[in-house]
Amino acid sequence: MAGCLAACDPADDVRFAQGADGPAAVEVDLPEVVSFHEHVLPVMSEYCFDCHGADRATRKPKKNPLRLDRAEDAYAGRKGGRATIVPGRPLDSPVLARMMSRDPGKVMPPPKSGLVMTPGEIALIARWIEQGAKYDAAEDAGPAGS
Ligand code: HEC
Question: Does the beta carbon of 113 lie inside 6 Å of ligand 1?
């Protein structure tokens, strides 16, 4: 993958660069077909897995920890039966709403982590969800897979 999907300069107010129409309105070069392993994993590893990954000790929120590194957890119903990722429906997926939120109490990753996603990275996740949010294993990524 090219090192930079979109805006390479870490603009502090990148969040406010997003149009009201959401990430789809951002003009960036996205891969035609988004692969979990190739494209999404590096982004989620950088921004999410410190608190929503495989390490039980650091997983958040404490009461009902959320894992985003496995399909079964990401698709599972949480509060109110709502899944965190709804395959095919980015705008119904809290994951995307959290990434796009302008509310410092809601936005993910949390401001105190010092991490800020670029519009291109958010758009990439949106496209991945739109394409089915498949957690393809590296070895399944080829054309031989279904
Ligand atoms: C530094 C730790 C940290 C990082 C990094 C982080 N989160 Fe979170 N996340 C939290 C905490 C703490 C909560 C619980 C408080 C809240 O809901 O805001 C939370 C809650 C959430 C929730 C709601 C969970 C629920 O209870 O249903 C979602 C969705 C979420 N995070 C998505 C993400 C995504 C996507 C990323 C990466 C882009 C991310 N988070 C990165 C700490 C983190």
Answer: yes
